[in-house]
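hey all, quick one before standup. I had two proteins in the batch that finished overnight and I want to keep them in one place so we stop losing track of which output belongs to which input. First protein below, input sequence then structure tokens straight from the run.
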Amino acid sequence: MQMNTPPRSTIRMTRRGRFVLIATGAVVAATAVAVPLLTADGGGGEDTRPRTLVIPEGWRAGQVYDAVDKTLALPAGSTRKSLDKAGLKLPNDAEGNPEGYLFPATYPLPEKATPESLLSSMVETATKRFNGAPIAAGAQRNAMNVYQAVTIASIVQAEAATRADMGKVARVVFNRLERGMPLQMDSTINYGLNRSTLKTSESDTRIDSPYNSYQRMGLPPTPIDNPGEEAMRAAINPTPGDWLYFVTVKPGDTRFTANYDEHLRNVDQFNANQKKASPTPTK
């Protein structure tokens, strides 16, 4: 049976997949932990030129461009401007936009590295990982193409509080899509607004954007970041379950449910915890 979404004036989903009440009215895969952006050989020599560039999981394309500019000591915006001549071999669905295909990893920096060569390495790595088994087979098994799987993985990367939650977050995405429900993910709105925040206002959910998953049905038109392998695996092999909602009540305690009333109780606990954590105003 198709399920209706609760009124938009009642709930919203945060960047980490948390619904909160709105007042009515050689490439080595990178990890998500903090890592040095640039690394150089030690030894105290005069040559301190970076030897590698680390692209963390979940970075947006804009962050990658900025990192390449800084790494190669280029004027801001140089890497973005190089896209037209980079000749990146992207899927047709991407329409020239490499978001989602700048694979998170540690890339060597040869002496003659250029923005075009670095971006090409990232896209080639992503294409190799995504088009091979089991990603391509997993996408087909779930009645979607690889680009759609990457898009779902990018949402999972942005919304899951922990790697252990990724499969469940992916299942919520699938369950909502299958029921004709809007995804209602703040992470997609934040991408459309080119910002990163945990606070999304009710007016934000009414913006006219293809990335507004409160107003638009289905997946956003592109990935919203560059997901890692764990998120990709979750996107093609979501954890079995009937969940439609989730809220991180406190760090390490994310609760998934298919029952809206139960979800509201979880939200109440989340709000209570947030209130306790807020410092008492001084007079």
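OK second protein, same deal, sequence then tokens:
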Amino acid sequence: MELDMHNGYKGVIPLNHHPDFSELGYQVITELGRNREGGRITYLANVLNSNQQVVIKEFCFARASADLSGVKAYEREIKILQQLNHSRIPHYVDCFEIPGIFYMVQEYKNAPSLGLKRSFHPEEIKQIALSILEILVYLQKQVPSIIHRDIKPENILVDEQLNAYLVDFGLARIPGAKIALSSFVAGTPGFMPPEEQFGHSLTEASDLYSLGATLICLLTNTRSAEIGKLIDDNYRFNFQKLVPYINPRFRSWLMRMVERNRKRRYANAAVALKALQPIQVVGTATAIDTLVSTIKPRKRATVLGLATVVTLAAVGGTLMSCQPGDAVRQLLEARECQGFNLSSICQEQTGH
């Protein structure tokens, strides 16, 4: 790929000081972040003779034990960013290099990362989810569609109006691409969908798993590095007791986002977005909501079908001795309830 970069830039990086990019038209203001293991440093800079601010990402291959594959990753990120035009994906601006160090310049968004310790009300977390899903819908409408592959709190910026921005497209792929087992370290443990961990083909549902894991971290005030505390011995998320005030419908939506089997997740971002929009995050649930949210997805259809039959029968007056609310009671007293190991819920809802 041909890159429009300032090859052979001879700028000097003084020891213990910010690099001097004045010859290229940038003045570094401050350091925004540092990843020593990855050999990456991020700077905030002014564009000289303008009011524009940019982010300059430094990739030091000499310090990061990186090889040609690392260089290709940043070339791929630039190629993807050049074809995107979304207000909540920072635009690519420029790139340049010096021996052993590569720099990429992007639009600056005045919004902190979710990787910082921040607390949000559950309804605010829903707004963040909707905002990210809108970006994913845009990415999945591209031809070919784009899978981000590294959605996590550190790669999501959120401003004061709860607008979310998605950054770091260095691992992005197209659907159907298989991931080599040797690239495990490329993703982030706990946020990678199972299909990626085992080198299977990615789908438009792959990013949904990572987003679901991110939202669960926000709801439970869990740092990314501690996400393992939310995953049980069966490698499934187990966080329900930490957020008892969450509406079961929202909890059910989240659990479908992080289904280990990608075929049981929402098919794509558009479907997940539509499903989330009408859900109230905090609030009481009906008996049906409570029942359905505790059942594994494969068995929900059976219970919902049973609920429909009971409800229709109640409306038609064919249920004997039914008083208002008895339709739900008869549903919960049915054999299926016991068959799903929900005796505690049956007792709670029916009093039997």
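Flagging for whoever picks this up: Residues 247 and 280 are 7 Å apart (CA to CA). Strands lie at 26-35, 40-47, 53-60, 92-98, 101-107, 156-158, 164-166.
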